[in-house]
TrEMBL record, chains A, B:
Cofactor: Mg(2+)
Keywords tagged on the record: Hydrolase, Magnesium, Metal-binding
Protein known as: Phosphoglycolate phosphatase
CDD domains: HAD_Pase_UmpH-like (cd07510)
Lineage, opening ranks: Eukaryota, Viridiplantae, Streptophyta, Embryophyta, Tracheophyta
Record carries keyword Hydrolase: yes
Length: 301, 301
């Protein structure tokens, strides 16, 4: 069925059929460090009607703790760490669930959030921000050394990507037997600032695919890996969840893959013309301009 | 037919059937800045028998002029610029042949060689080594500006890859109407030093694919784009050429795509077990350990 524009005619039946609203963050709740207008009121209203609210973000730069701080700093003081699922957390959970040995190390191309989540899960992460200023130079008779005990490389969004990290990660994946290659997510671009889009984790992950000839295990959206945590936590069915996001190929596809209802907001990377373009084959159930529309529709007669 | 090990039994018929030997460089002629043993004698011998010698390299770090200097510095003094085809040159030729407007600019993720070849062809290259120390920071209310007059982004091997260059190239490809995305080549790794492999242009090119959701035009091997120059230059048939290389998926595939005879040398990235692995489906006509074997086989009774 073609996506329906959210309206006073269809809003109430959607709202009543949902127990848990899953929100993407970048482009839905905020753009960079700027809160999107009307988000705070809409979230308060949804909660006041007894609905659960969860934030599911592919952005792995921060840990769940750091995201809770960001919500607070933007005035969304009621959001707790337990309501946040980040792909940084998902990467650590993937290793834990798969009994990744605690004596093996993990090389990280990505932000502090991944390192912190690995540490909380009891693992040792190498690389990350600590390797941002390192140089890898081609010198005769000199060997670029890597830790043979690295058993997984986790790749996420890394604005400090460099050749040192790429060589380190590539050597681990190509030369350490059985080394896992895990991607937090593969978003092509994201609204890292309020003014424009920037290369996302898809850029760094694809770079590693290009040098290793390997495909990664993806733990973020549209993979439904994170859904297991949600189902366990809320003891609900996915059909009574609604995924609200700004990206078709991650958020909406994630919702569809999991069997949720889906609502696209046009406040992020997807425009109405992108959505309605003939070339697009990912169609949400509903779409609207912004999360703030929920407040308007709830108040409408 | 399964690849034949080069031997005194099959060498002379191969040698006599070929007018022009095409040599890859990294892993065939040199590793990093170290000449592979016996290469100089083998090249002299091939020339002394009246054969043409051409060097076809995917490594875009240098221009043809810079490669001629490298050959000289390694003692291969007879190699001229006209005998060298580099993917840096191929990128410039691709634009020239396709009448890329001289008033448009080209953003380069890659080395000085690409910038120099563009300049020789009459074009203005931006980026390259000049952007290696630049930082791209996510700041609120601040726009990362790019030149709207960039009509092509050329991506090659870049050991100084950074987020600034990736954001610049991504913005050009995504936002400048009709902007071309050209890859010098997509080698996963290469022997940039004598001791080990390093991420190749495939790494940087895939990074751009990941952020732009676009596939590039590839001008280096295994694309046969460079073959047109060779055919025009030597007025010969491709069946009387032999491509000598160390990579199956670039060199040998290039030779096969063009209809050349193919000889794999095991002095670079491909081992005999890689070659004979069941999973490999690119089979050269012949293989041998190193270019220096040509001297031994020529001298054998």
């Amino acid at each position: 069925m073609a996506p329906q524009l959210l309206s006073s005619g269809n809003f109430k039946s959607l709202f009543d059929s949902v127990d848990t609203f899953l929100f993407d963050c970048d482009g839905v709740i905020w753009k960079g460090d700027t809160l999107i207008d009307g988000v705070s009121q809409a979230l308060d209203l949804i909660r006041s009607k007894g609905k659960n609210v969860v934030f599911v973000t592919n952005n792995s730069m921060k840990s769940r703790r750091q995201y809770a701080e960001k919500f607070k700093s933007l005035g969304l003081v009621s959001v707790t760490q337990e309501e946040i699922l980040s792909s940084s957390f998902a990467a650590a959970m993937y290793l834990k669930i798969n009994n990744f040995p605690k004596d093996k190390k993990i090389y990280v191309i990505g932000g502090e959030g991944v390192i912190e989540e690995l540490q909380i899960a009891g693992y040792t992460g190498l690389g990350g921000p600590g390797d941002s200023e390192k140089k890898a130079e081609w010198k005769s008779n000199s060997l670029f050394e890597h830790d043979k005990n690295v058993g997984a490389v986790v790749v996420g969004l890394d604005p400090n990507i460099n050749y040192y990290k790429l060589q380190y990660g590539t050597l681990c994946v190509r030369e350490n037997p059985g080394c896992l290659f895990i991607a937090t997510n593969r978003d092509a671009v994201g609204h890292m600032t309020d003014t424009q889009e920037w290369p996302g984790a898809g850029c760094m992950v694809s770079a590693m695919c290009g040098s290793t000839d390997r495909e990664p295990i993806v733990v973020g959206k549209p993979s439904t890996f994170m859904m297991d945590f949600l189902l366990q936590k809320f003891q609900t069915e996915t059909s009574r969840m609604c995924m609200v996001g700004d990206r078709l190929d991650t958020d909406i596809l994630f919702g569809q893959n999991a069997g949720c209802k889906t609502l696209l907001v046009l406040s992020g990377v997807t425009s109405e013309s992108n959505l309605l373009d003939k070339g697009n084959n990912i169609e949400p159930d509903y779409y609207t301009s912004s999360v703030s529309d929920i407040t308007k529709l709830m108040d409408s007669p």
